[in-house]
Amino acid sequence: MATTELGRALRRWRDRVSPRSAGLPEGGRRRAAGLRREELAMLAGISVDYIVRLEQGRATSPSSQVVEALARALRLDPAERAHLFLLAGLAPPGPETVPCYLTPSVQRLLDRLVDTPVVVLDAAMTLLVANPMYAALMGDPSALRGFARNRVWNHFLGPPGRIRRTPEELRDFETRVVAELRSVAGRYPADLRLRELVDELRARSDRFDELWDSGAVGHVESSVKTIDHPDVGALTLDCDVLRVEGNDLRILVYSAEPGSEAAEKLRLLSVVGTQSLTSHRPA
After folding, report:
1. Is 223 helix (H, G, I), strand (E, B) or coil?
2. Beta bridge partners of 203
3. Contact 75, 107 (CB under 8 A)
4. What average pLDDT does the structure give for the chain?
5. CA 10/CA 13 separation, integer angstroms
6. In angstroms, what CA-CA distances link 144 with 55, 71, 192?
7. Is 240 within 8 Å of 252 (Cβ atoms)?
């Protein structure tokens, strides 16, 4: 089947992104300076087969979530991102929807913090991008899809995470995340996906429904977190929440006091990445 304009555009943009600029190793022989399809698939959280079908014109109607992920992975500027949406037959997201665009300045910040766990969330607390150190610390989120990428959904409906909280800390965290989500829903009342997220949480979690009905409005703040890592043990880290007001993003940065035991464990994680240090396998 003839390649579509969407497929040609994806190939052009893929060819211009070097592995180094995307934070990937450049080892091995390469026929082109740009990203391989496998690398783009990994960065965007999309299957290689789907990338192939898009480029060959055998898939022509990607979802807005897929288009957004491709725009981030390909590091498109605002005009290119809007053009990609149009090529996919979609209207570019407007001001009435939760922004998901990573500005070049935010991307440069992520590129520099290679030894620090960093994750970027949108205003609704859906994970947009996480660096390798975050994956090593919290578990690799690349396979998560749909609402499973949302921090609030994961807490109330997902499997247990690695963060340890006292009962008091748990109550405070739940109150704050629900309050922030309520604030976001008030700012973006026309965002259908956000509305679906809230409806599902209210239907499936009595605790979320109770907190939502309380009417609290607020936001999540920086805090100290204890993470129980399966290989290096417990790490007590500062979690700073940086807000990109123009794009309504949240950047979570985890750090340790220099010279501390937690700092040494982070250094170890930076070496081993997501590889297990022990012989155990997940159940």
Report:
1. strand
2. none
3. yes
4. 89
5. 5
6. 23, 18, 20
7. yes
